[in-house]
Amino acid sequence: MVGILIVNKPAGMSSRRVVDIVARRAGTKRVGHAGTLDPLASGVLVVCLGWATRLVPFVQDRPKSYRARVLLGRRSDTDDVTGAQTEVPDAPRPTRAAVETTLRTFVGEIMQVPPQFSAVHVGGQRAHKMARRGKSVPLEPRPVQIHGITLVEYEYPQLVLEIECGSGTYIRSIARDLGHDLGCGVLLSELVRPRIGDFSLAGAVAIDNLETRPIAELLLPPLAAVADLPRHKLKATDCEQLTRGRPLLCPAGCRYPAGGVVALIDAAGQLQALAEHDAEEHLLRPRQVFLPGCSG
What we know:
By secondary structure, this protein is α+β, with helices and mostly antiparallel strands. It has 3 domains: 3-62 and 198-225, Pseudouridine synthase (2-Layer Sandwich), CATH 3.30.2350; 64-196, Pseudouridine synthase (2-Layer Sandwich), CATH 3.30.2350; 229-289, PUA domain (Archaeosine Trna-guanine Transglycosylase, Chain: A, domain 4, Roll), CATH 2.30.130. It has helices spanning 15-26, 56-60, 96-104, 127-132, 171-182, 207-212, 215-218, 236-243, and strands at residues 3-9, 31-34, 42-49, 64-72, 74-76, 85-87, 108-112, 121-122, 125-126, 142-155, 158-165, 186-196, 199-200, 205-206, 231-233, 248-249, 261-265, 271-278, 283-289.
């Protein structure tokens, strides 16, 4: 059982729970997800099965889109509605123009501090486990990429935002920091992820369908996880070279990016390996080889 499963995770369920359901239905323990969604959030969760779990980093690196509803005038220890909330006394009511101006400061590469209740490791422990014990831990800011933020709706105390961002971004942190900059406090109340890369809700499977349909019918091929990479078609002799860990001669005129990763596919269009393009030596050096053989 190998492939990519796009699940529409419901709010109130952990990403780990989705993985457990898929593993049980598929009859395998080799299951992992790319890009955690908090229990509060719903939307696209990409689940990889079998050796396709080795492709998780490529899915995680794809841009993500979110639709977030936030509440102004409040704060919480989790930066969302699941935590202990407090109202901000005499909180100002910012104008739409002020909100839009402030949101523009979040676009680009920014330094972001993760929430206290997050999966970040601190001294070998998860931050959220320490936070639940009442221990506040210093979390270092880290660079994240925000491609764009759009204010969709604003009727105090609620804002609806559409956010396009890169890997590692915490939407709860955006809400928290927006509230700080506006001087009124903000927390996240609802979050939907409509898309990761080319994977969208339109092609996602509901949890209930996992119980009624065979998993094999719902899987996408592993190649879908690296669909944005250039592709090199293998010959039968190339497959033998790959299984021995030997580089392949890049054909004359190949224009793959120098140092870039190339998806190696067989005649049947199946992903067999990933290679790095050595432009100086005109070679494709194996980076990951997935199957012991392929059809030429």
